[in-house]
Amino acid sequence: MASVHESLYFNPMMTNGVVHANIFGIKDWVTPYKMALMVLLSELGRAGAQLGLLERRGRNRLLLPLLQGPDMPLSRLRKAIEESCPHLASSVHIRLKLMAEGELKDMEQFFYDLSDSFTGTEPEVHKTSVVGLFLRHMILAYNKLSFSQVYKLYTALQQYFQNDEKKNGIDESDMELTNTEEVEGKMEKEELDVPLREEEISCSGPLSQKQAEYFLSQQASLLKNDETKALTPASLQKELNNLLKFNPDFAEAHYLSYLNSLRVQDVFSSTHSLLHYFDRLILTGAESKSNGDEGYGRSLRYAALNLAALHCRFGHYQQAELALQEAIRIAQESNDHVCLQHCLSWLYILEQKIFDSCVLLEHSVNKSLHFGLPYLASLGIQSLVQQRAFAGKAANKLMDALKDSDLLHWKHSLSELIDISIAQKTAIWRLYGHSTMALQQAQTLLSMNSLEAVNVGVQQNNTESFAVVLCHLAELHAEQGYFAAASEILKHLKERFPPNSQHAQLWMLFDQKIQFERAMNDGRYHIADSLVAGITALNSIEGVYRKAIVLKAQNQMSEAHKLLQKLLIHCQKIKNTEMVISVLLSIAELYWRSSCHTIALPVLLQALALSREYSLQYLASETVLNLAFSQVRLISLNILHMAIEPVLAHGAVLDKGCAMFLVAKCQVASAASYTPQKKAEALESAILNLNEAKTYFAKVDCKEQLRDVLYFQARLFHTLGKTQERNKCAMLFRQLHQELPAHDVPLINAFK
Fold first, then answer.
1. pLDDT score, position 674
2. Model confidence over 584-633: pLDDT tens digits?
3. Which one of 79, 167, 226, 333 is least enclosed by Cβ atoms within 10 Å?
4. Which domain covers residue 709, as residue numbers?
5. Are residue 63 and residue 138 in the same domain, yes or no?
6. Burial, 728: exposed, middle or buried (Cβ in 10 Å; 0-12, 13-18, 19+)?
7. Do 542 and 513 form a contact (C-beta atoms < 8 A)?
8. In this predicted structure, what is the pLDDT of residue 741?
9. Residues 427, 442: one domain?
10. What secondary structure does DSSP assign to 172-218, as a single string?
11. pLDDT of res. 168
12. Which helix (H) or strand (E) holds 3?
């Protein structure tokens, strides 16, 4: 029970100044805004025969959001009418003014005349149409009012109109403000068919049942498909609190509050709202009505299942396991196979945190197909593919499995899972080092249109799949030296996924990594070091690895070695093979810098064995190139050319430059035993490869590697007796060497 003060909105559930707790006992009631809508509908009915086809279409697009949405100020309603039906705006305003400034009998007469719209052989409005149902609800609600309630409604109408008049008077006194309002009016019309913002929900009283249901379904759809167009977490929670203030037993509002709390990672509020949702669902009997005697038990088992999912999301695995056991027990007692299949999927996710086992997942996929649960079966297949990709299965077998999954998606029109499947293919090709195929899959997803019919003009393009693909696309461009394009993609990501959205951490991590690589290439190690903290906050493993890279670049070898050894043990424990290989390559480089080539060799062989075992072709090629560097005089150029093919085809620009630099070194080393003529030809060929390497390094602004190339070229030109070219390279080298001091470390002492 809550006291209601003087309000602009009349509530028919109000009795002697008190609102009953069940505010949705009546589905709709009359408000001044709805009276303005009825005036508009009346005018449209009179002018219906005179409207052309385009005008009728504009009218229909205008009416639906106005009928379904919450009440709005008269000024905004008037501007919407002026944009869609300009010839009716003045007549609607005049009729509303006559009613508000007239007497109570004028409002009575208006409702009496409204009933005539349904009479006659060809009525202006059909009773079963959307407009007809709305008018009949309003007439019925008005007829149930007592005289005192009618008077309060009339007073509210006068206040509603006077507020608009006062606002117009202020606007007319200031021409600049008037121009601003006109611009805003045009923008508001463009946004009529898009989700309502905070300023548009301007009801001081409660929403009707239909308005509340429309608002909740709209916001829930936006949170799933396009979070940027939904209300901000704070404003949405404010509206939900307003709904729950008038009806605490509104279960759907509690569930939307749960989803809203998940956006901001609020574990307490999300748990609180989830428990309240299932409590209200049981208390109101909604489940029992739809599911018979099983409704109560169904709510309990799905409450436990959702609670397990919530705890798992926040990393509370012990609590999640307890809740899941409870859900399994209740589902077994009720013989609910669908709930048991969902429990089995979550059981796999929980056990995956402890040990890798695909037995549960395979069983879950088979059972899901048996019980006709394609969504769950597809998710299981994709989880299996992901697990086997990390286990080193061949790419062709994984793609065949994803093809079978895609058949399920297209058969059942599972648009969201189609997006997830393509994003997964992009990530798998990136894992195996095939950047061209990853780029192709990313472009495929970005050029697709959603199969889901999403309301309010929203396309399903702001999901996690799109965030993942765009992040990969930004990284691919950055690797090829297109930093401006990568910045544009990241800028687009920031607009699509604001910092407070749930998928923002994806682009934040990639943004930090790209900035880190640019700073390292440019030799600005202090800037790279400052970025490590941000990377660590988003991904601790990536952060520690990059901290070791910075220490290595700053010649703090012992500290870098200790950090890499700790990281190696941790990654081996969690079976992060890709990072294990990267760490091994960095450790080998530390040994080179310390002139311990013999110690680096077994480390590189271990990295090569792992990369081949897990089918990581690109890392295998990079390891071979590192081996070639450690044994320059023993490696055949033919073997080296075979190893660099994947790097030149799919590698980053920096890796391509390092590969060509290594080829030049091998050519020079092999030329030592040649005749003078062949030696000169080999050195000329090495200079050409160095020019190509220099082009690659210049593209990513890698000054340290450019300095090494210029030093090597100067030595070769000196050997060939080309003094002018030698002096040019020496001058460029000196400029870079003054900018990037070598810290007493011999030049050309590392592969990268």
1. 81
2. 999 998 887 887 778 888 898 899 999 988 888 888 888 888 887 777 64
3. 333
4. 652-751
5. yes
6. middle
7. yes
8. 58
9. no
10. HT-HHHHHHHHHHHHHHHHTTTS---GGG---SSPPPHHHHHHHHHH
11. 67
12. strand 2-3
Q: How confident is the model at residue 53 (pLDDT cuts 50, 70, 90)?
A: low
Q: Please name which of 653, 656, 649, 617 lies closest in space to residue 518, comparing C-alpha atoms.
A: 653
- pTM (two decimals): 0.72
Q: Which of 574, 603, 632 is a domain's end point? A: 632
Residue 284 near residue 251 (C-beta atoms within 8 A):
yes
d(Cα 313, Cα 83) in Å, to the nearest integer? 46
Query: Would you state the structure tokens that stand for residue 494, as one six-digit string?
Result: 């920031």
Of 602, 632, 662, the position where a domain reaches its end is 632
Cβ proximity of 234 and 273 under 8 Å: no
Q: Could you tell me the two tokens for 535?
A: 């990377």
- For the stretch 686-732, pLDDT in tens is 999 999 999 999 888 888 889 989 999 999 999 888 899 999 999 99
Contact call for residues 136 and 47 (beta carbons, < 8 A): no
Phi and psi at residue 250, to the nearest 5°: -80, 95
Assess contact for 238 and 273: CB atoms under 8 A. Answer: no
Structure tokens at 10: 């009349």
pLDDT at position 531 is 94
Q: Does residue 324 surpass a pLDDT of 70? A: yes
Angstrom distances, CA of residue 720 to CA of 612, 714, 717: 41, 10, 5
Same domain, residue pair 255 and 400 = yes
